[in-house]
Every structure is written in structure tokens, then in C-alpha cells.
Amino acid sequence: MNTIQNAYKTEQLTQAKLLINGEFIDSNTTQWQDIINPATQEVIGRVPFATRDEVNAAIAAAQNAFATWRETPLQARMRIMLKLQDLIRMHAKSIAKVLTAEQGKTLADAEGDIQRGLEVVEHACSIGTLQMGEYLEGVARGVDTYTLQQPLGVCAGITPFNFPAMIPLWMFPMAIVCGNTFVLKPSEQDPLSTMMLVELAIQAGVPAGVLNVVHGGKEVVDMLCTHTDIKAISFVGSTAVGTHVYNLAGQHGKRVQSMMGAKNHVVVMPDANKEQTLNALVGAAFGAAGQRCMALSVAVMVGESQHWVDELVAKAKTLKVNAGHEPNTDIGPVISTRAKARVLDLIQSGVEQGAQLLLDGRDVQVPGYENGNFVGATIFNHATTEMRIYQEEIFGPVLVIIHVDTLEEAIALINANPFGNGVGLFTQSGATARTFQNKIDIGQVGINIPIPVPVPFFSFTGSRGSKLGDLGPYGKQAVQFYTQTKTITSRWFEDDQESSGVNTTISLR
Ligand code: NAD
Questions:
Q1: Which of 156, 269, 403, 456 has its Cβ near the most Cβ atoms within 10 Å?
Q2: Does 309 reside within a domain?
């Protein structure tokens, strides 16, 4: 079996490389950032902040490659995706190990991260049917109209730290299979597993210049958002940065989608299946240490379900906090010491603002990993909407509980929250579920499902403060996002056809 190492290894140390015009190269930059294992604080590698010349070279390579790539038959593009999905499957376990080391999530969750991205690659293998245009015969006498879904040119993707496999795979496979070329800017906090996937894409046959990678932070992102040769930007990350990217790239005439932060609620009705509901709440709130954009942050207990809180806490207490690679771990570390300090600050604010701290994960000890960024499962009861723990995205293993009397109150509460990423409802009543799905103003709704991330045949959605731009990053909407519709209206004359003379009206007839 072939190995993956060109993308991130040198003889001396593990460092993320740039990918420019098919070559994995060491950056000339003087600015580097350490990549740190969040369970141990061990420096496991370093990442360059690419120079302006390097970013320009990556965009130029993508621009040059576009002319040939867009003419490459789509079966050839699909076959590369078919090969890529095979290679990812083959290397999933070794990528998961690197992902866990640099990101902290458990090995099982790292494999899930890769699997959810892999499903997008599988979907990209059927681009032949997804990219079809429309044809309508006879729109006027002898006139037909049809559409082409043509690639845009050079597209760019900017990704967050929490899904270093899935989110890059939401973007570049769909973009390039549609005939675009791509410049990817992975998260600087955990780029190594992303680079392994990129290397597999090159091994699968992605030609030089079609996929390029630059690393960095704000300066590199701003260059991508303003460069004239980039036609579209797909961003996933926090609301603050996503809003900046959306505005900056939009001002420079680009098509933009920003998938941003969240504060996800789950509504628990008293008629719900209690055991299933409580298990789902605990998994969704504390899995991946709460660092999912679809993590559960707020449980809204309706009426009599208020009496289930003690059992919820008892279940959360059983979760094992440990390094992600250790067996039976439920909660790994958060990504950085800075992220941990932020989570602890928010927990303290909840205490000071008067929420009832039922389970306190602040002083969790993990033998053998005393320096890790661990926070145990934390639960606040009787929170209110004025509190910071309710208003801010915590991005840590903290669940906030609010009590209301009716479904209508729950819906009003959630619709008043600025975020609109995901929501869940637990009930055994179809009528309640139908009312909820109709009235709730949230992009992704789960009915007895806590983290309703859509499979790739649909698209990732999100509303209000969680998303800017109309189209999602994978699924049918990604094909729309990465192509532009050209509408052709045609008429062919018979040699002996009689002319109807000059017509100065707008009508085709
Ligand atoms: P982040 O916004 O800090 O970083 C995202 C990307 O933006 C990174 O590549 C980073 O290098 C770059 N960046 C950081 N600061 C920048 C700046 N000032 N200017 C320009 N670029 C900058 O996000 P993160 O902490 O890596 O990821 C967590 C966030 O992402 C959470 O808010 C989470 O909800 C969100 N997220 C959303 C979705 C979704 O689909 N809605 C999915 C995953 C994560």
C-alpha cells in the first residue's frame, strides 16, 4: 500500500507543506506556528504562514490549470473521485490517528469525521447526473432553450479546526469535480490530517494546479478574498470571521458562502421516550468535547420533562474524560489552552450570573495527561436568556438547561436566538413534530435526532446568524454554488425556409 507523507513530512520534522502546481514544497516564510497535541501539549509539527508570493503562485497555478481542467471530460474527473474515495477508505485509520493527535477528538470520532467527508467524495462520483442542464423544446416556433452548468474558474476554501477531514472534503471534491480549480486554506491549528487527504487527491490523479494548498491566518484569507482571479469563496468557521469573509469577498465581486457559529437547542416534550432522549442529549452535548457546530448547547425542557434533569446529570457523570487515543474515551481535550480558558471563563460567568451549576467539569483530572486541555461535562440548570452562557457559543462540553411550560414558548425562545444552525425536538407526537418543523426558524431540524447533519444527497443548510449566502457547501446546492448557469436559446434555419422579415418587437414568435 502506498504511504502518505509528502504533504507533511520532511527528514527532520513534521511540517505542513504548501501544494503549488502539483508540488509539495516547503514554505520560504519566516512565520511558523506550532501544531500542538491538545492532550499533552507536545509540539507535533509546525505550519507555515505562506508569503504573499506563495499565495499568488498558488492562485496563478490554479488559474493556469483551469483552461485544461474545464475541458477534461467529466468521466475522467469522476474517475479521479472514485479513486480518491478508495484511497481515503484505505488510509482512514492512519489519517484518524494524526487527526486525533492534532485535534484531540476520540479515534472513533476522528474516523467519523473522515467518513462524513468520504460520503461527499462518493457523491462527487455521480457528478454526471448532478451537473446536467435542462432542455425545453419549442419555446417559440423552431426555437429551443437549454442550460449549461459551467464551472466558475478558481475557487477557494477556508476551513475551521473542528472537522479537519470532513469540511475540506465538503469543498474541494465538489468544486473540482464540477470543473473548477481550487486553493484550500486549512485551519492552522490542525492542518496535518487535511494534508494527508490532499496528498491522496494528488495520488488519485488530480492534475498539477487543479488543487493547491496555502496555509496561514488572516493575511492569507484576506488575499484570497480580494484576489481578482478567485471567483468563489467557501468559508466555514466562527460568525465573526465568517461575516468578515462574506463582506470582504462580496465587496470584491465573489460568490461567497459562510457557514458560521451556532447555539443549538433541543426541545424535550414530556411525551418523549425518556431513555432515548436523555442518551441523545448527553451524546450531542458532550461528544467531541462540544466542539461541533451542531453540538447541543441548550436543552429546553417543556412541562413535566423538568423532572428528568437529575437522570440527565447522572448519565453525564458516567462519561470518561481522557486523551482521544485512549480506549473508551468519551470526552477528549478542547483544541488549545486558549479555548480551555475561554470555556472556563464562560462557566464562571454562568455561576456569577446565577445559573445553577449541577455538574462542574472545571477541575477534571486526567492521570498521565495532566497538561491536557480537558474540561469535563458541565451542566447548568435554570439558565436565562440574559446570561452569557445562553447568548454566546461556548464550543466546549457545557450544556445549559432552560425550562418552559409549552411548545409555543420553546419555539418563540429559539426563534429569538440570533443563531439558526441546528435544532432538535424529542416527542412521540407526530402532530407536535409537524407544528415544530413548520414554525421553527432554523436551518437543520432533527425530530428525535440530536445532530441532524444532512447526508450529501441533500445540502448542509443553516439560517440567520449561522449562515450567509444562499447555497450550502455540499450536495445539490454545492453544484449550484460551484457552477454558473448559462442559458442558450437557439434556432436553426432550413436552407429553403422563408424569412419572416425584420421584427423589431421583443417577441420570438
Ligand atoms: P475561526 O473562525 O477561528 O477560523 C476559521 C478559519 O478562518 C481558519 O482557517 C482561520 O485560519 C481563519 N481565520 C481566523 N481568524 C481570521 C481572521 N481574523 N481573518 C480571516 N481569517 C481568519 O473558526 P474555528 O475556531 O477554527 O472553528 C470553530 C467555529 O467554526 C465555531 O464557531 C463553529 O460553530 C464554526 N463551524 C461552523 C460550521 C457550520 O457549518 N456552520 C461547521 C464547523 C464549524
A1: 156
A2: yes
CA of 160 to the centre of ligand 1 (A): 4
Mean of the pLDDT values across residues 465-483? 96
> Does residue 125 have an active-site annotation?
no
304 burial (CB, 10 Å; 0-12 / 13-18 / 19+) is exposed
**For residues 429, 439, 265 and 388, what is the CA-based torsion angle, rounded to 10 degrees?**
-150
Residue 357's DSSP bridge partners are 380
Binding pocket residue ranges, ligand 1, CB within 6 Å:
158-163, 185, 187-188, 217-218, 221, 236-238, 241, 244, 259-262, 293, 393, 395, 421, 460, 462, 466
| From 162, 190, 219, 294, mutation site for ligand 1 pocket: most ligand atoms within 8 A of C-beta | 162
Residue 72 sits in which domain range? 67-207+216-260+466-487
Nearest CA to ligand 1 atom 35: 237
Please count the structural domains in the chain: 2
Strand partners, 431: none
pLDDT tens for 183-232 read: 999 999 999 999 999 999 999 999 999 999 999 999 999 999 999 999 99
Burial zone of 406 (CB within 10 Å; 0-12 exposed, 13-18 middle, 19+ buried): exposed
Q: Verify that 238 and 342 share a domain, yes or no.
A: no
Q: What is the DSSP letter of 471?
A: S
C-alpha 114 – ligand 1 centre gap (Å): 19
Q: What is the pTM of this model?
A: 0.96
27 in a structural domain: no
